[in-house]
């Protein structure tokens, strides 16, 4: 098994899936990413809160879109002046465009993080797999921390505030347990 990394900043051995965040100036367990939206790192104990944040933000923008669509009717505008009606219409269209952009970005982040949660990965592991030393022994498509969809969801949403001591299994054991993964395998990767 690959050795655990040593953090020179914190002067300690890092558990698997941990990374030192230079912005937070500390090691984060099950490091996902440093998020400027929440002003800190997304890690093992707050990944569910980050997913909930994305879910409710996306839902909020859909509600704003629905309200914006129902709230504008060019025929019932108070002013009969065509310039006033055009101004209201252009402001409404700008607002609607901005909402669609927000729905797209938060919705795509929600879909991506849902995929990561279901597959037992983090953003760091998924995007930087080739530079993480302990993941190099695994072929593409083998996710060493995958515990099945239900197991992965339990690890994220039902952890009761307790960190896990992640262990690595041999690649052949994981391959037999996981079988063929349609999204990531030795032939191609969807992401």
From TrEMBL:
One Pfam short name: DHHC
Enzyme class (EC, first level): transferase
An MF annotation (GO) of this entry: protein-cysteine S-palmitoyltransferase activity
Annotated GO CC locations: endoplasmic reticulum; Golgi apparatus
Catalytic activity of the protein: L-cysteinyl-[protein] + hexadecanoyl-CoA = S-hexadecanoyl-L-cysteinyl-[protein] + CoA
Transmembrane portions of the chain: 50-72, 92-118
Highest rank taxon of the organism: Eukaryota
Keyword list, A-Z: Acyltransferase, Lipoprotein, Membrane, Palmitate, Transferase, Transmembrane, Transmembrane helix
Domain Palmitoyltransferase DHHC: 4-127
EC number: 2.3.1.225
Compartment annotation: Endomembrane system
GO biological process, one term: protein targeting to membrane
Topology in membrane: Multi-pass membrane protein
The record's note on its domains: The DHHC domain is required for palmitoyltransferase activity.
Membership in a protein family: Belongs to the DHHC palmitoyltransferase family.
Record's protein name: Palmitoyltransferase
Organism: Halteria grandinella
High-level lineage: Eukaryota, Sar, Alveolata, Ciliophora, Intramacronucleata
